[in-house]
Amino acid sequence: MPCLLVILMVSFPRLVLVGMWLFTHMLNRAYHGLLIPLLGFFFLPITTIVYAWMVSNHRPLEGMNLIFLIVAVLLDAGSHDRGQRYYRRR
């Protein structure tokens, strides 16, 4: 079941963020306001999800957790790069 959630998060990160905002308090615990999650929704959705999960589960920002956060940033950056390549070919 956790693998299915990870696949869903990587495939549809913005839908997962909306679901987290509607059905849980993870985003409220991680971010005190609406600006950062809103910017995360548009620019770094996977990173926003991973950081909210880490903060709401009281995980420190070191070791393997830092690696998870770096991988999330790289996944977000890779998704932006694929879009640029698509529009350059057109």
Break the fold down into its secondary structure elements and pairings:
Blueprint: H1 2-11, H2 13-23, H3 26-30, H4 35-42, H5 45-56, H6 64-89
Helix pairs in contact: 1-2, 2-5, 4-5, 5-6
Structural account:
With 90 residues, this protein is mainly α. It has one domain. Helices cover 80% and strands 0% of the residues. It has 6 helices and no strands. α2 (13-23) packs parallel to α5 (45-56). The longest helix is centred in the last third of the chain and has 26 residues, at 64-89. 19% of the residues are buried. The model has no long low-confidence stretch (mean pLDDT 86).
Strand content: under 5%
In N-to-C order, the SSE pattern is HHHHHH
Mean pLDDT: 86
Distance between the termini: 39 Å
Number of helices: 6
Query: Biggest β-sheet, characterized?
Result: none
Q: State the secondary-structure class.
A: mainly alpha
**Rg (C-alpha, Å):** 14 Å
Total domain units = 1
* Secondary structure tally: strands: 0
* Tertiary shape: globular
Helix content: over 70%
**Poorly predicted residue ranges:** none
Any key phrases for this structure?
single chain, 90 residues, mainly alpha, 6 helices
Brief characterization of the structure:
The protein is mainly α and 90 residues long. It has one domain (2-89).
